[in-house]
Structures are given as C-alpha cells and as structure tokens.
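User: Please predict the structure of the protein below. I'd like the answer in structure-token form so I can feed it into my own downstream comparison script.

Assistant: Understood. Taking the following sequence of 226 residues as input:
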Amino acid sequence: MTGVPASATGGSGRPAPGGKLGAAAVNQASLWNIANILTMLRLVLVPGFVALLLADGGYDPVWRAWAWAAFAVAMITDVFDGHLARTYNLVTDFGKIADPIADKAIMGAALICLSSLGDLPWWVTGVILGRELGITLLRFWVIRYGVIPASRGGKMKTLAQGTAVGMYVLALTGPLATFRFWVMTVAVALTVLTGLDYVKQAVVLRRQGMAAERAARAEREAAAEQ
C-alpha cells in the first residue's frame, strides 16, 4: 500500500497528469507523513509531560529531569516537523491546524504547571499566554487581507521562551536559578516586543487591504458608468 488513492493515479497505477497539482493532491491525502507524525508525538507528549512534572508533588528533581526531557523532545520536534513539511512538500490541512495547537499546548501546560507549583509568577504566564491568544485573534482579524510572515524576532522569542521554560522545569539552585530568571526576563521582553510588532504589521496590512478594496470598487464603479 502506498497510501495514494486510485484517483491520484488515474486508476491505472500510473501517475496522473497535472504535475505539481497532482503531487499536491497526493501530499494532501497523505496524513501519515513524518511531519504529521512528529506533530502527533508532540501532542501525545503533553499529558505525559504534565504527569512527570507534577509527579510526587512536583518537587522531585528526578521527575523534573524526566519532565525536562519530554519538554526538550517536544521543542525539538517543533523545529523538525515544520522544516520537513516545507522542505519535502508535506504540508497538509491537518498539519496546518495541529502544529500550532501542539506548540501552544506544550508551552501553555508548562507555564500553568510551573505557576501552580509556585516556581513562576502567574503574571509571566499571563503575559505569554495572553500574547499568543491575542496574536491568534489578530490572525483572524486580517486573514482576508493576507498572512503576516514569521519574523526573526518571533523565532528568537520562541527560542528564548523554550530555553527559559526548560530551565524552570529543571530543579535548579544557586547561580543557575539566578541565570534562568534573567533568561526568562529576556523571553518576556521579546514576547511583548514581538507582540507589539505583530499588532503594528496587522494594522498596516488591514489598512492596505481595505485601501486596495476601495480602489478596486471605485474602478468597477467608474467602468460601469462608462
């Protein structure tokens, strides 16, 4: 079994004509590709990560180390599944929906658990999760006008957040505990700054889109009057 439907091969076992269009149809039909499997793995890791982090009251260094390992695997798969999907044309509708959900699920679970244990102030969790919710709403606000691409600042934010949260998952003491505080400070600062930049880009994109719509409408009206 190749997982390719008969309609994609014209029912004769031979590739159907259509070039890139046919290839895209095959890739869309292939749910069980490596990129989607990594995304599913990340989703499955979320409850396991929470169980490990909260095991034995949430303060056992050994369980925290195992929780860190699960969190690290989730962060690594986050990097690879997107790269594989783009490089090998494995983008699917499932991946478009599940990938951001998996990202927010593992990060949200870590932040909420750490705050509930008293390791991380609730306001930090609120700022990071509030930013993610706000960006999601902004995407819906401007989706008819286009998509705002990921910026270098956004990638730095993701790296800083993952590093900081991972350090808080570990039971660190002494200078390392102080260092992780400053890493989290950088992560929060990048979270706020990139969020403000996203808002700015969203407003500009929406204004440009609305101006283009008005211009197109005026052009149609002028043509109709002639």
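That's the full token string. Residues 35 and 88 are 9 Å apart (CA to CA).
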